[in-house]
Amino acid sequence: MVFIQSFLLKSFKKPLRYSLRGRFLDTLRLTVKGGHGGNGLPKYGGAGGQGGAVYFVAKDGTSLRDVVAKFSNKRIVAGNGEESSKARILGRRGTDQRVEVPLGIRVLDDLEGTVVGELDEEGKSCLAAGGGSGGCSGNSFLGKAGQLRTLTLDLKLIADVGLVGFPNAGKSTLVKAVSRASPKIASYPFTTIRPQIATIEYEDYRQITIADLPGLIEGAHANYGMGHKFLKHVERTRLLLIIVDVFGFQLSPRHQTRNCLETIYALNKELELYDETLLDKPCALVINKMDQQGAIEEICKYDRYFQSLEDGLDLCPEELKPSKLLTIDSVIPISARSMTEVEKVKQEVRTILDLKAEEEQQRIENSDREANLREKLHERGPKVV
Ligand SMILES: Nc1nc2c(ncn2[C@@H]2O[C@H](COP(=O)(O)OP(=O)(O)O)[C@@H](O)[C@H]2O)c(=O)[nH]1
Ligand SMILES: [Mg+2]
Q1: Is the CB of 339 inside a 6 Å radius of any atom of ligand 1?
Q2: pTM score, whole prediction
Q3: Residue 284 has pLDDT above 90, yes or no
Q4: Could you tell me if the CB of 165 is within 6 A of ligand 1?
Q5: Ligand 1 neighbour 31 (Cβ under 6 A)
Q6: What is the residue-wise DSSP string for 36-76?
Q7: Which atom of ligand 1 is nearest to the CA of 165?
């Protein structure tokens, strides 16, 4: 094992590249506003239409990126109620906004500290902002403003860390090595398979959860075996922990043997074909089974490519070539079975998650500032100079 350590000292000293990359969204802050109620018409006793409301509706296959793409200014406003008029004494109701969001979303009102809704079933919806009532004799015929709220859509995570690897890479062995307790099988209302969740505990009592998911196979994106369901779970983790056997992978004697670099490309391709935004997640690579004879020689053939997968593409068979590449933040050769360098995995996971949390905080602060400014400009209206 001295070999692994000296090998480690030589390589993979690059700083974490996490902060330079794109982000997979698992939380999104939005301003929602119900429509203004239409004014009534005192002369005829006419009532204005009620303002439209904003709803969130759970829809499988939607991502938070889709929501951002649709509402790039992160502001969702329902239609105003119609004014009462001579031609239409009862004004029409404003148009509702029904916004599709991913399954497994929790809607939070940060200011009030309340949970507005749990959207963990297809088609389930919650009211995000009610419309203002229309003006009528009871309220001096003045339509009321709709509800204005800042809400956070939070994708409920299965675990902080999702293990991604083909069968036999050593996922279960690694989970056992990093966590004391035997994994608990978690049941989530929005999933059909039950991932095994274990908790990594640190000396300062910090806890990070890790999900050992049923094995991925080549072609998972095409929904062979359990692969598709597996990939669905990867969406609900903050960090990908990719694990490969240093000697690669062979699905069965009928299949081709893939060396460890090819195995990484194959995993990359599966993730990409399922949902390429998964590749924006932070990612650490564990090369397992370094206790085996010839492991160092094997890893030395490919180590220069791990942190720049682009450079190794020439060595990648055509059928495994991804078009969007993972960015690997950290490479950790280990032996899960003999517990060598397992501590390093724990530390790296924590460092990457902390960096991500810091960046997230920064982003929320910036977007708060931006939202405040936009709100002020909006209130002031156009200014003629
Ligand atoms: N030599 C060696 N074998 C390992 C290591 N980690 C796991 N294995 C073996 O590889 C096989 C598959 O491991 P497992 O954890 O079940 O893989 P999973 O299918 O990815 O969950 C088992 O026989 C393990 O004992 C390791 O670090 N070194
Ligand atoms: Mg297993």
Answers
A1: no
A2: 0.79
A3: yes
A4: yes
A5: no
A6: PPPP-BGGGTBBPPPPP-EEEEE-TT--HHHHHHH-TTSEE
A7: 20
